[in-house]
Amino acid sequence: MIADILFFMFASILLAGSLGVVLSKNPMYSVLFLVLSFFNAAGLFLLIGAEFLGLLLMMVYVGAIAVMFLFVLMTVDMTQQDDDGKRSPLFVTLVLVTGGVLLFEIIISILAGVASNTRLSEFVATQSDVQNIVQLGQVLFTNYVYPFIAVSMILLVGMVGAIVLTHRKREGALKQDISEQIGRTREESIEIVTPSLGKGIS
Amino acid sequence: MTMMNEFNWHFYSAGIAEIFVMVVCLVLLVAGAFSHKSVEGKFVRNLTMLGLLGALVMVVGHIPEVREFAFPVVEHAMPSGAMVSLFVNDKFTVFLKVFIILSAMLSLYLVDDYMTRKKTRKYEYDILILLSVLGAMIMVSAADLLMLYIGLELMSFSLYILTAFHRKEAKSSEAGLKYFILGSIASGLLLFGMSYIYGLTGETSFDGLQQAFASGIAIQDAAMMLTFAMVLFITGMAFKISAAPFHMWTPDVYEGAPTPVTAYMAIVPKIAAMGIFVRVLFEPLMYMADQWQQIVIALSILSMAVGSLMAIVQNNIKRLLAYSSIANIGFMLVPVATASIHAVDEAMSYLLVYCMMTLGVFAVILSLRLREKYVERIEDLSGLSKTNPSVAAALAILMFSLAGVPPLAGFMVKYQAFKVGVEMGLTWLVIVAVLLSVVSAYYCLRVVKVMYFDKGSEVYSPEVPSQIRFIMWAMVALVVGFGILPDTLFQIPAIIQQSLMDATTFNG
Question: Is residue B508 part of a domain?
């Protein structure tokens, strides 16, 4: 019962959020609507017992990708472009055709699902006593430890690559050199002068 | 589950070389970051060489008599009771790994002079080479589509970065970007094919796939979809070995990348990709041979035609080598296209000799400078026989070998490849190959003609670094030596072919 209520709540907000992404004129609002949709999609994943996918969606899509969108939007000039509302007929047909095909596919797959009487929850491997994060962890760190580590090497290559390809020495940049600071001696930093009377140090 | 909780060294010992290279990469990253600027290049270079040498010793020191597995997937056992592993070690992988590590070491020797002159020396170069060697090793040892993909990506990512290594040169950055985008598309196709194969058979391991295909259930139920998946898979692999019609990236990337990177890229990824391509075709996909044979024949003919014909009009020697590598991949695919496992050794010995010739030619290119700039145009070679006769002689021998002139190694491997093609009944393919190899002789001999018969007045920068000279003459010696004594050349591939055959009979 509660699950049903939650499902309809998440689903309706998800749909509304997705509409907001497409319909809002301000791209900033679009991204924020996108974040809202991600959260609700994550909620749907949690409902069917795929908590790992749900958390992944929140961490990767909200935490990394949506934030990156925001950064990009903020660095881009945000002056609103006037929309005269005119669309070329080719564009409209293209949109209608692709949209129609997608809608058709969705309807077909739903009908096929109804016909074969499979429930969505059957696709998610749920053992009642073990969470699937634990299950994934058990598999990743035992049987699949080799690909797991190898993938980490790929990430390392990405990091090294980003540094190699973009890092450069800037001329005249001030940088703290701690050993130099500590290594200063009294002799090279302090000079004792004896100014003569009434003249001061010149 | 009980086995899983115990640490069993036996599960990992076959993959010791990979683990070692992985650790060396990590240590070197830290060592390079903390060592002093004035010594870091040399320091990291020496340690990289030591690391590669260590990996070589580990690979050679343990040549398995029968196939060995490592990193078993404990819970996933085959019906026969054998455990499914992610990693396989047999004579085939040992051969490829030795070949990969030696090529990487030699190509690292080519770098010093070039990078010092261009003032782009960074210690990360060595680490990226090492990482891509690691990727290549993981790839050739893969016993599972998953590991194949991960190894391939590790190798390719390092190469994308190395291609764009001279980031201040527009050409290098452009080549890097092009390679990255096209490579990603190819990986996508490969992954798409793999996911279909997994979806249709429920297996990703090579052994499991072989059994699934052997039982014929998978083939009957979804023959169309499986063929489709296989086409996608072969497309992805064909991109990596730059076989036409998936060769578009090769000339631009070869031209734009820094020359030592091109030398590396023309060799190591080809060895790894060709090796695993052959393994996949003859192990998991051996029962689909009827289907993939046509594709490989098409790839072979197109590669030979495109490579040989397009090389004629090239003016830049790096582009010429790119097209020559496409053509050579085509010749290499002739024995593979027979779909007979008895032809694998011909393909492998061709690969071996192709790598020697290519490395030698790149050593020559890296040793020639005109007005303190590296020679890239073919006209710039004019009169080389007068100004620098020894280098001209070396390049001439290598070019004759590439053209397939007896008694050089290039002729021997081509002859063997064509012979096995005729024996296996692909006479028409061999006739096409022979005709196109005549065409490919033209562009090779044109280089010789420019060097020996065209007048040149330019003076080359005289000094050739001793390391480069050593590699150049070593490769010339190998090409001549194997040409005179071809039996030694074919011994090793024959052994590895036997190991591949043992594997297929063992499971089938």
Answer: no
- Nearest residue of A to residue B135 by CA position? A150
Per-residue pLDDT of chain B (508 residues; tens, 9 = 90+): 344 445 677 777 888 899 999 999 999 999 888 887 777 678 888 899 999 999 999 999 888 887 888 887 766 655 555 667 888 888 889 999 999 999 999 999 888 888 888 877 888 899 999 999 999 999 999 999 999 999 999 999 999 999 999 888 899 999 999 999 999 999 999 999 999 998 888 888 888 888 888 877 656 667 788 889 999 999 999 999 999 889 999 999 999 999 999 999 999 999 999 999 999 999 888 888 888 999 999 999 999 999 999 999 999 999 999 999 999 999 999 999 998 888 888 899 999 999 999 999 999 988 888 777 788 888 888 888 888 888 899 999 999 999 988 889 999 999 999 999 999 888 999 999 999 999 999 999 999 998 888 887 666 766 778 888 899 999 999 999 988 888 887 887 788 778 777 766 544 3
Q: Write out chain A residues lying below 8 Å of B151, CB-based.
A: 150
Q: Looking at beta carbons, which residues of chain B come within 8 Å of A147?
A: 86, 146-147, 150
Check CB contact under 8 Å for A161 and B161: yes
Residue B360 domain flag? yes
Which positions ≥6 away from B138 have C-beta within 8 Å?
Answer: A150, B18, B147, B150, B151, B154
Range of the domain at B392: 3-503
| HSE toward the beta carbon, residue B275, CA cutoff 13 A | 32
CB spacing of A143 vs B73 below 8 angstroms = yes
Residue contacts between A and B (CB atoms, under 8 Å)? 73
The residue behind tokens 């939650």 is A6
What pTM did the predictor assign?
Answer: 0.87
Residue B407 domain flag: yes
Burial class, B402, CB count within 10 angstroms (exposed 0-12 / middle 13-18 / buried 19+): buried
Q: Which of A143, A156, A164 sits opposite B75 (nearest CB)?
A: A143
Rounded distance between C-alpha atoms, residue B309 and residue B59, angstroms: 40
* Interchain proximity A150–B124, CB inside 8 Å: no
Which of A147, A156, A165 minimises the CB distance to B167? A165
Tokens of B264: 């590396």
Of B322, B180, B348, B307, the closest CA to residue B263 belongs to: B322
| Inter-residue contact B323 to B254 (CB < 8 Å) | no
B255 touches chain A (CB under 8 A): no
